Amino acid sequence: MSTDLETPLPTKFDVSDFDPRARRARSIRRLLLGTIALVAVLGLPWWVYPPIAVDIAAWALFAISVDLLLGFVGALSFGHAAFWGVSAYSAGLIAQNFGLPFPVAIVGGAIAAMIIAVPIGYLAVRRSGIYFAMVTLAFAQMIWFVANQWKDVTGGENGLQGVPKSFFGIELIETEAFYFYYVVVILIVAGAWLAWRIVNSPFGRVLVAIRDNSARTRALGYDVEKYKLIAFVLSAGIAGVAGGVFAISHGFVSLQELDWTTSGKVVLMTVLGGMGTLWGGPVGAAVIVLLEDRLATSGFDGIGIITGSIFILCVLLFRRGIWGTAKNLIDRARAGYAKRRS
Amino acid sequence: MTTTRSGLVTVTGFAASALMLAGCAGGPPPAPESDLSNDKVVIGLLNDQSGVYKDLSGPNSKVAIEMAIEDYLAEYGDQAVVTEDQIEIVMADTQNKPDVANTQAQQMYDRSNADVILDVPASSAALAVAEVANQKKKLHINISAATTELTGAACNPYTFHWAYNTQMLAKGAAGVVEDGGETWSLVYPDYAFGQDMVKSFTAAVEDAGGTVNEAIATPFPNDNFSTFITRAASTDPDVIGTMAAGGDLINFVKQFNQSGVRDQAQLAVGLMFITDIHSLGVDEFSGTTFTDAWYWNYDEQNREFADRFLDLTDTRPSFAHAANYSAAYQYLDAIQRAGTDDADAIIEELEGLKVDDVFLRNGEIRAGDHSVVHDSYVAKVKDAADVEEDWDYEEITATIPAEDAFPDVNPNCSM
């Protein structure tokens, strides 16, 4: 079967593409959103405690990687902690044993995550819906058990301690989380950009087609499994970058990284932020990480109750998530405005 | 962040005499020069405030630390280097997750200017905090984590391990062997803690002349132990030792009692807190032996402490509460002697120090691996009929001298 990656599927016909005024309005809007995003990314460690800022960045990219599958392939991976965790352990071990600068360790971790994603993905993409979620969960649990038992390498329950943050001997970056943030955020933004590129490429269109009607896409001559597998592995790589950043930032890796609750948390973030939007994930990540941080010092002992209630409220009231709802409101306002003008 | 100024009972006598002396010219020598960072001492309490370890330490440890501050101020009066207004306690919840513990510890040191972080249950969380302490060159005194790693391969100059460890927990087994419990079967959860415990228990039993028939691994966490209990009983041991802890221990003990194995073999528990006995009921545990680091009703001194604690919290203290008290008190005492809260100066004060307080009996803060050694106890859970009051659950059958409970400086530790 020959698949032509260069042939985009027909997209929704949009009048605004031909209206110069609407196109200008759109580019202004994009510029505005871009500026807000840039300010948010650069300003984050000024507003929140820098190690928390790094956490938000890592979870944000992790949520983006899940959204890539959930929102654009329609596959809910309930085992993404496997890639986050495998990368965290690999990055930690690389940094510890070879003393390489941490970006190399993080990229190494991401590659390890992609390698492990190939066999898992190969089996998982043959199923969809709940079965896909269960297969990914099962593999993630398997990896959890391996990490738990392989004490000599992973440290078992105690985890991997003393992961260094070496960066060409620049002490400011190695010791100060504030400066460290600005280095890792480059990796995070690169990962987010990659996800954005994937979604907005002809390849991404095929993924959306698979999500909407996989039988029809197959009938059109696309190798559905291959597309899904590539998306799965790319998503694992992006999750891997996030996991590597998280491990290096904390200076240790624990079994928590591979725990199923980690998979659950990132799905929560994605849904809370708005799935299928890509940028909802970071919003959800920021909300959850900041909330957990506040609650940890509040003396209130029902952290699960709060995050759980938010999730329920979100699912009941804002199906599209925070970002999705906001985007929808803006779109509606715009439509109303355009109507009044005409 | 809940930053609570230690709103303690001021020693009224102290206040009164200070007022009186304010008018006099001479009076006692002025308080010794002190050199405190940020002009105050901040004690961070980082533990489980919402999960399975909440009862055994949790928020009540703050009360214990407040008691230590009160006692310190009363002891030194106007000679105290740190005044009441200069002591602050900050508290945070680790949720027993190492990454949360790690971030919270960083925040405590950086933002709340904590000079020391106390407690931190769950070994993985403890190791994560020890790592931060080493990086920031601030103190961490661990109380409720069990791992010997803290004073082993992961040891560092800024971390002390105050109360107990997996090796010490196994020492009580020797006493059981001497009482006739010669053959053992061990059931352990298959993760780092369980594996360490089995190693320590096997060594302790064999050193005392007993034999371990078999060690059976169970999944962790686990709900159904019945097959493992049956298998453990099949070799007809005198003692069945379980290394399960927390919720798993509760399940194990319930199923052990229901299975009827209780009539054939004695139960020994690796790690148990008095709060576990309290929550499941003394009936379920009666006859069980375990190693305890401290027991509230052991002697008059402990009882006095426990009575004060009871007034403030409505519960009796676990050994973790007493250890938090002890660590906070000895820390303040070291500041008193050093005249500063500088971490390196405090370490110098603490290293090699011989201590006797309500928690530490024949205590010594070992310089080699920063393990705090002290007398420990072999405890047996009383029969329900012998319980005279609430929380009166344990009978101390033997004391394990400090040098036996914590025998050697950990060879894996290099500072």
From TrEMBL, chain A:
Subcellular location, record wording: Cell membrane
Molecular function terms, GO-annotated: branched-chain amino acid transmembrane transporter activity
Coiled-coil boundaries: none
Keywords linked to the UniProt accession: Cell membrane, Membrane, Transmembrane, Transmembrane helix
Main location: membrane
Membrane-related topology note: Multi-pass membrane protein
Top-rank taxon, per record: Bacteria
TM helices/strands, residue ranges: 31-50, 56-86, 98-124, 130-147, 178-196, 229-255, 267-291, 303-322
Classification via Pfam families: BPD_transp_2
GO cellular component entries: plasma membrane
Protein name as annotated: Branched-chain amino acid ABC transporter permease
Species this protein is from: Agromyces bauzanensis
UniProtKB/TrEMBL annotation, chain B:
SUPFAM superfamilies (UniProt xref): Periplasmic binding protein-like I (SSF53822)
Alphabetized UniProt keyword annotations: Signal
Signal peptide boundaries: 1-22
UniProt xrefs under CDD domains: PBP1_SBP-like (cd06327)
Coiled coil: none
Domain Leucine-binding protein: from-to ranges: 41-383
Entries under Gene3D superfamilies matching the protein: 3.40.50.2300
Stated name of the protein: ABC transporter permease
Organism, as annotated: Agromyces bauzanensis
